[in-house]
Amino acid sequence: MSLDKTLLSMDELLKLPREKHFITGAQAMSEAVKRSSTDMAIAYPITPQSEVMHLVGDIFAQGHIKEYYRAEEELGTMSAIAGAARGGVRMFTATSGPGLLRGLEAIVSWPGHRIPCVLGVLTRVINAPLSIQPDNLEMAYLMHSGIVMLHAENQQDTFDFTLAAFAITEKVDVYIPVSVSTEGFFVTHAKGYVEMMDEKYAFEECDPYKAPVPAMDNEVPPARIQRDAPVQKSNFMSYLIHSVWQQEIWDSNQRAMKYMYQYIDGPIEVQNPGSDVMLVASGCAAAQAREAHRYAQEEGLSVGFVKVKCIRPWPTDEIREALKTAKTVIVPEHNIVGWLCKEIKGCIPNGGIVLEGPRVYGGMTLPVELIMTEIYNALGMDSLVLQA
Amino acid sequence: MATATIQNRKRYNMRISGLGGQGVVTTAHILGSCMDNSGKFASLVPFFGSEKRMAPVEAYVRASTEPIYEVGEVVYPDIIMIFHSQVVTHGKSYTMPFYTGLKPDSLVIINTSIDVLEEEDIKVLKKLNAKVVQFDATELALKIAGTELATNMAMMGMLLGLTGLVTEDDIEKAVRERFLGNSFVASGGTASLDSAIEKKFKKKEDLLAKNMEVINKTFELANSIDLTTDELIVDLVV
Prior knowledge:
The structure holds 2 protein chains of 2 kinds.
Chain A: E1 6-8, H1 10-15, E2 19-24, H2 25-34, E3 40-43, H3 50-61, E4 67-70, H4 74-86, E5 91-95, H5 97-107, E6 118-123, H6 138-142, E7 148-151, H7 155-169, E8 178-183, E9 191-196, E10 201-203, H8 236-255, H9 257-263, E11 268-271, E12 277-281, H10 284-298, E13 303-308, E14 310-312, H11 316-323, E15 328-330, H12 339-347, H13 368-378
Chain B: E1 11-19, H1 24-37, E2 41-45, E3 56-64, E4 79-82, H2 85-89, E5 107-111, H3 119-127, E6 131-135, H4 137-145, H5 151-163, H6 168-180, H7 195-223, E7 233-236
Parallel strand pairs in B: 1-4, 4-5, 5-6, 6-7
Antiparallel strand pairs in B: 1-3, 2-3
C-alpha cells in the first residue's frame, strides 16, 4: 500500500480511540473499507448503492485500495469477485435490490467455492412496479445461500459491521463471504454520528498463505476446474461431493458465531429482558423499534427490545433466551413477506406468540406509531386513535 | 403565552408543507441547526422527488432533547406548518387532507390572508383538540424585510416563539450559518477582504439583519397569543 499506514489485528484496531463524525451511511461504509486494507474493489452502479461504490472509487484514487474497476454488469462483477478472491486478494463490492438478484447466481456459488469477500447490500425494492425505495425483501434471497449476513441499524453499525466483516470472512474456520446490509436512503443517504479510529490505522493485509484454501494462479488454473466437474454426473460421487460441500458451508456459517461476540458485541442486543411484550427487529426497523421501546418505557409499559445484528448464522439460542418469558412478540419489518418474523417463529417453542407485523413495504416509512398501536393492542389497552 | 401542551415537550415531530421556492427545505435545515446550536437533537428527512417552483414541497423535522433513533417521513406529526393557503385550498400537499395523521393536542401554523379551513376541517381539528395559528407571514415578510422571500423566517419564528424550543441566539447563529456560511466571521478580519467579497458580505449581512428582524417580530406576536382559550383558530394581525 502506497500510504504509510499502521497495520493492526482487528482486535487491536477496534480498541483504538475514536473520534465522532457526522456522515452518511454510504460514507460510513466506505470509511470502513478505507481501514480494511482491501486489495481490490469492483463496482457496478445501482441506486442507492452507487454512492458507496463512488466513494470507494474515491478512496482508490487516494491510494487506500490497490485496484478498482467498473464491471460490465452485476453477474460479471460477482464472478470477477470470485476469481480475484481465489487469486488470494481481499475483495469488496456492494449492490442493491435488482442488482443483487442479477448477481445472485454468482453470489450463491461463493460460499461453496470458499470465496472470502465483503458484500455491501444497500436495500432497494426488487419487485414491480419499479422503485428505488428501501424495502429489504432482497435479503430473504440471501438467507439460504450460506453467506454470513449482518444487518446494520444505522450509520455507526454500517461502519462497525463492515470493518468486522473483513476479519470474519478470512477466518480459517469460516472462509465464506460476509454481507453487510442496511436500508437504502434511510441510512445510506442520511447523516448520523459515527465514531471512527484515525484513518492512518488499518486492518492487517490479506495473507493468502494463512488461507485454508490455497490461492490459485488464475493464468494456469488447476486442471480439475478446467473440465466438467464430477458433480455434473448422476452418480454417488456427485451426491457425496455436493453434500459434503453443503455441510461444510453451513458449518462454516455456524462457526462465524463466535466472531460476532469477538467483533460486534454479540449477535443480538437485548433491552429489558423478561418484559411481557418484546419488540424484535433488525436493520433500520430496529431504529424504529428502539424509539417505540423508549416511548413505552416513558409510559411505564412492560416492553423489551431485541435487535438482531446477525441474520446468518441465526442466533437461535440467544433469541430463545431473550424471548423465553415473553407473552407477545412484535416484529416490525420493511418487507411484505416478514422474513425475520418467520425466523423468530420457527426458532422458539411457542411461535404462536409472534405477531405478523407491523410491516411496511415498497420502501415506505415505518412509523413508530404503528409499533405503539401493536404494543397497546397486545397489552389490552385502548390504542392511540390515529385517523386515516 | 402558549399552553404547556405545546411548550416544553421532549419531542416535536413536524411536517412542513408549502410550494417550491418558499424555503420549506431551508426552514428544515435552519431548524436542525438551531437545535444543534442549543445542544439538543434534530433530524431532517431528505425529500426525494422533482422539486420545482410552485410544485408541492414537504419537509420533515424531528426535534428533541434526547438522541433521535427513528428515520423516515413524519407520518403522525404534532406540529404542521402550512406555508401557503394553496396547500389547503388546492390540495397542494403530498399529504391530503393537510392534517392527515395529526396527533391530538397539536399545533398547526398557517400562512394565509384568508380563512382557509372548511367546516369539515374545523370539525376534525376540534375533535383532535388542535390549535390553529393563522397569520399572514408573507405580508409580515414584505413589511419588515421588504421581500416575500423572508416568509419562511416568519413561519420559523412563529414556531420557535410558540414552542420555546431554542433561544433567539441559537436562531441567529443558525441563520448566520445558512446565509453567511462558516467561512464568514463578522470580525476585524472581514476588513481585509477585497471589495467584491466585502460588497457581497455586506449584502448578506443586511439579509441576515432583515431576517432576524422578521424573527424577532414573530417572537413578539407569539408571546401575545393566549393558547389557553377554547378557540380552535387564533387569528393574528400582522
